[in-house]
Amino acid sequence: MNNVIRYDRFQKEAIEYINQGFSVIVSAPTGAGKTVIAEHVITGCLKENQGVVYTAPIKALSNQKFRDFQGQYGDKIGILTGDVSINPEAPVLIMTTEIFRNKTLEDVQSLKKYAWIIFDEVHYIDNEERGTIWEESIMFLPKHMKMLCLSATVPNISELSLWIESVHQSKFKQVVETKRPVPLHFFFQCQNEILDQLKKLHQKGYKKKISYSYRGKRRFAHTFFKANRLSELMHHLQEKEALPCIYFAFGRRRCEDLAFELYVFTFLTKSEQGQISRMYDSLCERFDLKHEKSAQRLKALIERGLAYHHAGMLPTLKEVVERLFTSRLLKVIFTTETFALGINMPARTVVFDELRKFYGRYHRNLKTRDFYQMAGRAGRRGMDKEGYCICRINPHRIQFEEVKRILYGQPERVTSKFNTSYATLLHLYAKYQEKLYQIYPHTLHYFQEKPRRRKGAQDMLRAKVLLLKELGYIQDRGLTVKGKFAAALYGFELPLAEIYDQNILEQLNEVELGILAASLVYEPRRLERTPKITRNIRALKEITDKTSKNIHRLEQKFRIWPKSKEYFFHLAPVVEAWLRGCDFSKLGQYSGADEGELVRYFRMAVQILREIQHAPVTSAALKEKVKKLLVVFNRDIIDAQKQLRTK
Fold first, then answer.
1. Which of 253, 286, 396, 507 is the most buried (most CB within 10 A)?
2. 3-class SS of residue 10
């Protein structure tokens, strides 16, 4: 790296360790400058003609890093995700952690030229659904590779470091930074006032008064609650010159409703309005959005310096919003929490609509770690002397002690969510047979847990292997044809391999195969009804229902949880319309799903089809059928690679 760069203390410390050849884990607040350390590793590897892998937890972050690094390193950068393969032999290869884990199991030779791996957002090891992938990626890391782990602030970073040392029997350095480069100041909107201290929030927002007596006893109630007006908040931000602002709201519709509530505001000068309008039109032209109703609807807000951003939007439209935000012409963006995960888009102010969000199966108050992942976007390094975080508080919805805990509590520990997939077990069985159980003591789960919990995890591994044997995936200390097929699939192994084993995939036509793939990835909303489906699809549904029922019966017998994914045929009409050539803009008549949701499920279906196509035991006829289907399925806006190639 160029010696004129002035590093912060923690950056300098990490870089010195890297230069000495150590693997390193860095824990620092959001926006502290962890990426600089990653760039040092990349630049150093390129100088030495060595390869480096950069993994990210979500595809959106992988895509953004590809664009960012491409600007710095040109054709030395490649990307490999389930959606995209661009320059896959590049010396700097960006990929999702799933892809890397799969390579360690299936094709470790392909990693021979890579000297380093960078695990971005490594605290994701704590994620309920996907944390196991990080754990396995670290466990199965080839011995020749060193690692740089980048993490948000977590209290047990030493424990993580010691675990990695124990797995790889080598010294692993830890670097911790607790100080933010831009100080963060908290404010509260409560009783429609802006309060600058927690003490004032308690006095004015949570003050109680004697309201009545009952049977001679005093009863207490909250003071009358004044609604927090969005207009008051925005006037305050304008007066204090605290824009631009990222406003986190935990619902897609809520983001849009709030944005249109501010339609009466104009945050831009006439000159800026013309500038952002021209930029928006140009980007919409570039991303084929000019005639999309959703893009036309958003334009009225864009011209006022407003936007929204959430998973229900077209991916290309989200990218347009992101590009406009980096231009600094967008002054207020209403977004869900995914905008906070690694995407480098800071603002002067962050606003929380509330301090509760949906955690998988239920709503609960925010974790301190999640709060700071989002709040950390406030304060632009090199531009702002301080960042502002405003929490909108309704005393009837959250207790004062909980507000205090979220803002000033200790960030939650990172804990293992280890739950190895059937595909991983099949790969391990092919390599180690009955010795595969010796791998469990190398897990973070074993490192952290007490004997009783360890025994439960080992019992689960054995139960899964017994189930795979009972269903005929493993025989005579090796994998059967069905077992080899299932090993190529991650997350959908049993439901798809059982259908494959019945020879049904060979019998389906291309449209039916596309519907089957979409049905496997789809997750219906609560109480959502299956639409009317054709006779052929009804017959297919009967087969998949029977298959799922049998799998779940066996999983219950062996006490395996969570159970395998079921097929849901809610998207059958919309998939059929798409595969028969319908324009994407007209698909709304066949489904109530949001545009972004459809793109996401279609891309997931495409990934499933590619896994079928590349499974080593798939017949030539089925490979050809899938190949033809992918041409039709992965077209226009569904083609993620096309979006990424658009400059």
1. 286
2. helix
